[in-house]
Structures are given as C-alpha cells and as structure tokens.
Amino acid sequence: MPEFQSVRGFHDLYGEELKKFKHVSNLIREKLRVYNFEEIILPVVEYAEVFQRSIGEATDIVQKEMFTFQDRKGRWLALRPEGTAGAVRAYVQNKLYALKPYVKVFYEGPMFRYERPQAGRYRQFHQIGVEVFGSLDPVVDAELIQLVYEILSELGVNVVIEINSIGCKVCRPSYREALVNYLESVEGHLCEVCYDRKDRNPLRVLDCKVPTCKEAVKEAPKMVDYLCQECKDHYSKLKDYLSLLSIPYRENPYLVRGLDYYTKTVFEAVSTDLDITVIAGGRYDYLVEELEGPPTPAVGFAVGLERLSMLLKEIPPEEPLYFVAPFGDVMDYSLAVAKALRLEGRRVELSYRKGGLRKQLEFANKLGARYVVIVGDEEKAGGFYTLKDMETGEQFRIEFSPAM
Predict the structure, then answer these.
(1) pTM for the full predicted model
(2) Residue 49 has pLDDT above 60, yes or no
(3) pLDDT in the model for residue 60
(4) How many Cα neighbours within 13 Å face the side chain of 287?
(5) Which one-letter DSSP state was computed for residue 208?
(6) Do domains 15-171+227-310 and 321-399 have the same CATH topology?
(7) How far is CA 125 from the centre of its chain?
(8) d(Cα 51, Cα 87) in Å, to the nearest integer?
C-alpha cells in the first residue's frame, strides 16, 4: 500500500473511464454549440454567502455538505457545491443583462460536496451546467428538455424524463402549509432526517429514498393541485410544447429539487438501469433578484458527468494508432516520419524504447496500435518505411522523402 493516497471521495480519472468522460463532455459541448450557447468559465471558489443566500440556509448542502474555509481576512469562502449560484453571481456582477434581451451560457468543471461517496458520486465531481437568463416563456423550458432528450438519445442511455411544477411565491405557501399538516399526521413513519426536514424544508421529504418515507408520502397533497393560474398555464403550455416536439415524459407530482431557489418547472432524467438521476434542472425566477440583480426569470440544468459516463455501454472507437518503431541509428528519419504522419492527422506514437522487432511489436500490442511503422537502416537508405497492419499481418512499402 503506497504511503500517499487520494483523499476519500476524490479520485483520479484515466484510461477507459476518462475516455467515456471526455466522450460525454465533447458530445454535450457539440450539442450546446448547435443550440447557440456561449461558454463562461466560473471560479471554483466563491464567498460562502453566495450559496447560503441562493441555495438556502435550510438545505442539506449548506448545513452539511459545503467545503468552507476562512481566508486571511477572516472571510468565509466555499468550494462551489453547484454551479447555478456562481453563474447568477457572474450574470449580476458583470451586468450580462445589459448585453442581450436574454443570455444563454454554459460552464464545465468540478463541484465539491462533503457527502458519503457511492457509485458515480464523489466529493469532487464534474458537471456541465446550462443556464438561460431573461425569459419567462415555457418554450425555453421545453427547449432545454429537448436538449437533454437529444443528448441522452445520442449517447444511447436508457432514461425516463420526469417533470413537475412546484409553483411560485404566490401558490407555494398554501401548498407548504397543507404538506406540513400532512407530514405531521405521518411523522411517526418518517426517518430521522425527514422528521427534521418536515418543518424547515418539507418539500425535500417528498424526495427521500428511505422506503418508510416513500410509503408515508404516497397520499401527500400534490403541488399541481395548488398551482395559481399563472403556474397552471405555464405548466400546461410546457406539456403542449413537449408533445409537439414528440418528447416522451412522465409527470411526477412529487418531483422536487433539493435547492430552495427553484420555481415552476422542475425536471430530471432518471436512469432506468440504475435508478439514479443523471441530469436535473428547472426554473428559478427569483434567484437573480435574490443576489441583488434586476428581476430576471431563468431556467437551467446540470449534467453529472461521472454518473452519465457510468451508463455508457460503448463509445466510438478511437482513430487507429500508428506506432513508429526505429531500429539502428535512424531516430532523425523516424522523427521525420512521425511528423509527416501527424501532419496528415494520424494518431502517432514514436517509440522511445530500444530493442528488436519482437520487443517493439509487443509494446505496440500493449498500446493497442493498429499499424506499426518500421524504420531501419534499409528504410532510411532507400527512402521509404514499412507499414505493418497488426490485424491482417500484411506489410506495405511506403515511399517517403523527409521535407527539407
């Protein structure tokens, strides 16, 4: 056992896991390009108050999961546990609202939460976040769900998209009161965490995975029955748009989000294979104002890259690898061959090892090379190299003259 190991909940990404991770990231980035989203790079560290104000003091993230520390002036800072709050802070601080009627941005990077590590969930994890600022229209919500559906379809991941509306400042207080009254009637069946939640953050009880809690809330009142007319119309129009776009979805009246800032639309993409959420989002129409910006409706979602990568059954094969194997005093010629192949766009490994053909071929096999480019004294003198196909065993003589 090595003396130094990674911190629990923090892990290295490499090999096949990294290949899947990058495939997911690259595909999402390409999708965001065609939907005309602009990238923004956000800092990993924010003032802790940014998250306390936006996420909510009563949430699990703020109470238990944030990595916080004091700087030399005694100010409390936090490693970001999620990206939306920082994106809103950047939107307000940089006055992005003055640039366009509405703003579409995305960001990618690590997030940090102190929670129990499990499959696909680490204390440092990576997300791509997508945000649209400046529109109340449910067509924006529909387009983001369409984007999520297209991403998952192209990745070949089996999921179900769930949607719900959790109301607004007008209608949610009456629902909260009804929900708290109901939870008090079944409090003996709630887990210890939900018993505490029922007063400070009752909507989160609906999201608990503990079997007794899931059973206890089956008859709980539904937010959709308490929606004001504006929220009803918004939710109805969203469903019309999703039907128009032929996007399959399932209404889940108990779907909530774990953060206080959400309003109206909430949605999740849930893996049907592992029963875990891989993409989640919703609308947050008051958050910009809460962080001292102008009243600005907004909606977005976040993709858990590690979780989504876990669900990939296969990824497209890499470009074939060309392994340049020099023999004798031919490194100058081998460098020229490797350079020429790379300029053609080939993926090339120039061997730094010395040894006979057998040793070089064994090394090429370990690297998964499709072709071995044999370069020896004969090849250099004759102005060619020998190309060996590792799958068929065929060899070809390729004329080559180094560029001067």
Answers:
(1) 0.89
(2) yes
(3) 61
(4) 32
(5) -
(6) no
(7) 9
(8) 11
Tell me the C-alpha distance between 28 and 155, whole Å.
10
Strand arrangement of the beta sheet that strand 277-283 belongs to: 38-39, 103-112, 124-133, 298-304, 277-283, 263-271, 159-165, 250-251
Residue with tokens 């940014």: 50
Topology (CATH) of 321-399: Rossmann fold (3.40.50)
- pLDDT (0 to 100) of residue 268: 96
Buried b (16+ CB within 10 A) or exposed e, 108-133: bbebbbeeeeeebebbbbbbbbbbbb
Give every CB contact of residue 345 below 8 A, 6+ residues apart in sequence: none
Q: HSE, CB side, 13 Å, CA atoms: give it for residue 28.
A: 26
Quote the longest CA-to-CA distance of the chain: 90
Give the contacts of 356 (CB within 8 A, at least 6 positions apart): 327
Query: Torsion-angle region of residue 366: left (phi > 0), alpha (psi -120 to 50) or beta?
Result: alpha
CATH architecture of the domain covering 15-171+227-310: 2-Layer Sandwich (3.30)
Give 322's strand partners.
Answer: 348, 371
Report domain extents, the chain: 15-171+227-310, 321-399
Containing H/E element for 126?
Answer: strand 124-133
Count of CA atoms in the C-beta half-sphere (13 A) of 320: 12
- Grouping H, G, I as helix, E, B as strand and the rest as coil, residue 45 is strand
Q: Which of 57-61, 113-117, 202-206, 229-233 has the highest mean pLDDT?
A: 229-233
pLDDT at 59 over 70: no
